[in-house]
Amino acid sequence: MDRSSILKAVINAFPQPSLLVGRSERILVANRSANRVFNRDITGLHYTAVLRQPQLVTALERAMNNGDCDDVRYRNPTIANDNIYRASFRPLESPVSVGVVVTLEDLSHEEGLGEMRRDFVANVSHELRSPLTAMTGFIETLRGPAANDAAARDTFLKMMETEAARMTRLVEDLLSLSRVESEARLKPDVTTDLIAVLNELRPVLSGLVDTKSVTLEFVLPEEPVLVTGDRDQLGQVFRNLLENAVKYGNRHVRLSVSLPEREAFVRGPAVVVDVEDDGDGIAPHHVPRLTERFYRVDTHRSRAEGGTGLGLAIVKHIIGRHRGRLRISSVPGEGSTFSVILPRL
């Protein structure tokens, strides 16, 4: 085997995108992963035609001329996304070749997780700051101008109670989301009658239904429908969906169950639970983002209804843990349907 073949075999064996720049300042070898990163065959090109960013050129020249080993952050924008890499430059001196080996480690996923964490902390801080600021203002007013005003004191105390309840719901939902995420890979191993779970929600929701003057219709089979699932978590899913439907619907909410013998997603028998409302509907561009943490279609209305912006995120994670799927369809002005698809025993 000649030198060129040895070099090619070694570079191609690297799992990450890798290339070798020789003393000629041209790329002697590039593996398939590197060619995909740059969207072309880069073998034979001058390194400045590929590594165009100044920090990359500087790092390569330092490795070539001084034997330095550098790691450089490299952003490679593409049509589809903006990938971030750690570019490592290592001088190579061997009987086979002399040059610099460049490897690229994809940090996009890690960077994305970091951005999600930062956004999450910012959102939580914002959600907590609003009620805390309101309560601080109420306390200052009660200590000052309203100190001897009984009517104002009662009004402000009710407002404080509302804001405290809002913070309590937020903390409870954060704990619930954390708990669900920690169990995401643990598939439930308990057999549960889904119809019994749904029937238990009728009395729980009766107060909200009466308050909103909404008709809640259940269309359920008489026989049990068995699934492998956590009873409490499944109850949480459908309670959340029904509460949303009652709050944002107009006059009628319908929960129905169908039992297809074969559902493509679960590759076998399934149970499909549809929660339908006759509300204002949701614009198409909002639908894909509904299960994001703190995403709201109407922020003011959601907060007025006591929403934390975490309910559908919790629903999505619970359904995912049960190897199911949440399907959302909506027509503006006509209403929305939230469908939960679960494998059936």
Structure summary:
This protein is of the alpha+beta class and 345 residues long.
By oligomeric state, this entry counts as single chain
Mean pLDDT score: 86
As residue ranges, the low-confidence spans are none
SS strand fraction? 15-25%
What structural class do you assign from the helix and strand content?
Answer: alpha+beta
CATH topology of the largest domain: Heat Shock Protein 90
Q: How many structural domains are formed by the residues?
A: 3
Strand order of the largest sheet: 2-1-5-4-3
How are helices and strands ordered from N to C?
HEEHHEEEHHEHHEEHEEHHEE
Architecture per CATH nomenclature, i.e. the level-2 architecture of the largest domain: 2-Layer Sandwich
The biggest beta sheet reads: 5 strands, antiparallel
Give the overall form: extended
DSSP helix fraction: 40-55%
Output the radius of gyration. Answer: 29 Å
Task: Measure the end-to-end span.
Answer: 59 Å
- Count of separate DSSP helical elements: 10
* Count of beta strands: 12
The first-level CATH class name of the largest domain: Alpha Beta
Question: In CATH, what is the homologous superfamily of the largest domain?
Answer: Histidine kinase-like ATPase, C-terminal domain
Highlighted features:
single chain; 345 residues; alpha+beta; Beta-Lactamase; Helix Hairpins; Heat Shock Protein 90; 3 domains; 5-stranded antiparallel beta sheet; 5-stranded mixed beta sheet; 44% helix; 23% strand
